[in-house]
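Shipment paperwork, digital attachment
Item: protein structure file
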Amino acid sequence: ARGGPPALGGLRMTGETGVVAWLAARSPWRRRAMAFPAGVLATLALPPVHAVPVLLLSLPLLMLLAATARKPRQAFGDGWWFGFGHFLAGLYWIGIAFMVNEDVSDWAGVPAVIGVAAVMAAFPGLAALATRLFAARLDFSRLAHGVALAIAFAALWGVAEWLRGHLFTGFPWNLMGSVWAFSPALFQSASLWGSYGLSVVTVLIAVLPAAGLGRRTRAGRFGPLIASTVAVALLWAGGAWRLGGATDAAVPDIRLRIVQANVKQQEKWRRDRLSENFIRHLELSAKPARKPVTHIIWPETAVPYFLNEEVSRRFLIADVVPEGGFVITGAPRLEYEPDGTPVIANSLFVIDGLANVQASYDKSHLVPFGEYVPLRGLLGLLGLGRFVPSSIDFTPGPGPTVIDLEGLPSFSPLVCYEVIFPAAVVPRNARPDWILNITNDGWYGRSSGPYQHLVTAQFRAVEEGLPVVRAAGTGISAVIDGHGRIWHSLALGRSGFIDSDLPVKLESPTLFARAGDWSYFGLLAILVLLARRLSRR
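Attachment content:
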């Protein structure tokens, strides 16, 4: 392999070249002109569209662009442009938040989306760069080397996604494995290696057929495609087998009401509407039920008052608390330091029938520029304020915890996008009976954002083997069992409530729940060893 002509940038090829040589001969700007729309195209595979076959074109194109780049720097550029198109199209809904916020210009959403996409694009850029370095040892005319390239690219994409989910507070939104969310059977393997692992498998399935390009034999041309098809079949078959053991068993004597008042974000914090919005939640909670409700759940910041300070509001809530039960709601919490400095948290409160706060939780994973400003002093000098105008940052809580109260199965509370982080939704030393995610997706209107957020809750359910109850202010509220199946949901933009039993948790923790990211690292290690072995053939 090392003796072949270096005519294809990173890759070598001693036989016919075809598509690979054509890509290698393109100028840098023409390569970028292919990478950018390929990234946009890949977005169509994500929720809620799920046009998964587009990955068979977009991801192999990125892989071959990276592998044929003349220099590593060019490979990073190809990957960056792919990522820029991918995140620009996939995260457009961030801009909608600026349109519903009267304190900032509607046009501020444009640079915000561009800025986020530009930063996120660095991760596909790094994957492409690493692919180029690996490709320098390969001769693509050899089938084994073509397969090695596909395996290495999938593993490197997975590393980039993991880094995106952890560096600089992390943002693991739209992981590639989420494309299978339309079929519960196809994402059950997340119970083994998590969403990051399923992303690696997904990318490998998409790029493996490209290893057959330019092969002279029928087996060489179609073998990789057949292997990819078999992999999809195995994903589905394994998931179907796992779902065959699923039941509709519910926790005895527990009946939840999830309230979705559908308060528009433009009206949520208007002073003349605060009381009306609060009363709407009370009225929906008091509606008659076919079966007795034991506990009521309201979304994130459903109460626009500091509940720890305003006892009168807690007494109003206590009026709708079911006998012996609780109302669980999101609300801001205000405390004061000994020197009088105010401390504000985005919190969850558990209120009993006597208006007492039986438990609370402060959101720990805060949204940068939404709930706090990184490097506030420096950015303040540059005139860059927070997205939600305030001179005070929210204070983060201590992290994942379990709330265990008499009469209520133990649960791990998550506020808003805390649910998007694999292996970080429950404490590792205490397994609750269920996960509660309260959120307010009203910022993002009727866009793909709320649908994608719902999918992350389904994946956390599969990874942990725990039911997830989701209360969303404007939707989509849902009750999800430990296999990621949605029992009940309330559509985006609707007002009402869900009355539902609570699914039981899986009897045994999943492999991912036990091992966390280590199971994912194990998958990566196997693929790296396999790619290395094939590259030496």
